[in-house]
Amino acid sequence: MKKDSGYNTSQKEKLLDFLINNKDKHTSAQEIDNYLRSVGSPVGMATIYRQLDRLVEAGTVRKFVIDGKTSACYQYIENEKECHEHFHLKCRSCGKLIHLNCNKLMDINSHIAEHHGFIIDPSQTVFYGSCADCAGLSEE
Amino acid sequence: MKKDSGYNTSQKEKLLDFLINNKDKHTSAQEIDNYLRSVGSPVGMATIYRQLDRLVEAGTVRKFVIDGKTSACYQYIENEKECHEHFHLKCRSCGKLIHLNCNKLMDINSHIAEHHGFIIDPSQTVFYGSCADCAGLSEE
DNA sequence: TTGCGTGCAAAGGTTTTGCATGGCA
DNA sequence: TGCCATGCAAAACCTTTGCACGCAA
User: Fold this and answer.
1) Nearest residue for D17, CA–C1'
2) Touching check for B114 and chain A: CB below 8 Å?
3) Could you report the per-residue pLDDT of A97-108, keeping only the tens digit for each?
4) Which of A30, A127, B40, B104 has the most crowded CB, counting CB atoms within 10 A?
């Protein structure tokens, strides 16, 4: 389904590998560059961006833009359909992304649709706050 | 309360004026510049950004970064305290920001805190989707 | 062999910073 | 008067684009 059109290059493979291994995190193009450089397989920024664009286009990767950050973040999507059916929690301290499958949360959608006339797109909506680990710690 | 520290300059006043007059919309630094220029009171970009930073810092203005846009958007916040106590809906089509006072929504906080160990910060969380007006129209 | 993918370098746009000047308090 | 805010220009950043070469199919 997901037309991964294009050649299989080593650069593409390593880039996707990295994204898959970090699918629980948001990653910037810069971080990808750092990683590829650190393993001795540097890839030009232009290529990184071009591959990311392609992956986003194909729906394999999601692009996030986070308030306060000037650069975009990318994240591998395990299962495209699945992530349309739940919300995400994002910890502002450690950056962890939590996939939240919870029926109670899905009630929000219908409630807001019915009572407030607004159609929420869960795949685009992220709850910001503090995860259990970070909330326990004193905030500097 | 809101320490509006700093001098009262005409530039600052005009900038804030514009933001207040457009508090139902998000505005980019570029649009602010265009406006100030159009009324014959151009202000340097550096000053615009510096004032915006200060306003964001003071909580008077919120900064948004939206997918697909390369530049940040800013929006005046009517009442700082009030906005900590409700969620926001943001229409991805027309950009309208809706302040949602709804007890049902606030239940989410306690539910997620208790069952998922995550403390949501409503003031930082925005629901993205389509407002009634835009959802009804055919999407081009 | 064909043409897509890559790398490099340059361009583009947004935001930040340095420094001298001007204006508020 | 003292210091903060401003303006200009340059720099810093992130991302995109042009072009020639190399590699996958």
Assistant:
1) A46
2) no
3) 777 777 777 788
4) A127
Distance from CA of B109 to the nearest CA of A (A): 10
Number of residues that this document lists for chain A: 140
CATH of A9-76, one of 1.10.10.10, 2.50.20.10, 3.30.310.50, 1.10.1040.10: 1.10.10.10
Q: In 10 A of CB B126, how many CB atoms?
A: 21
Distance from B62 to chain A by nearest Cα, in Å?
Answer: 10
Q: Which of A100, A118, A135 has its CB closest to that of B98?
A: A118
Distance CA A29, CA A25 (A): 13
Output the six-digit token pair for A7: 């050649």
State the nucleotide closest to A30 in CA–C1' terms.
D14
**How many Cβ atoms sit within 10 Å of the Cβ of residue B39?**
11
Length reported for chain B = 140
B8 touches strand C (CB under 7 A): yes
Pairwise CA distance, residues A111 & A116, whole Å: 8
* CATH architecture of residue range(s) A80-131: 2-Layer Sandwich (3.30)
pLDDT one-digit tens code per residue, B71-112:
898 989 876 556 666 787 877 666 677 777 777 777 888 888
What is the distance of C-alpha B63 from the center of its chain? 5
Q: What is the DSSP letter of A93?
A: T
Dist CA B24 CA B1 (whole Å): 23
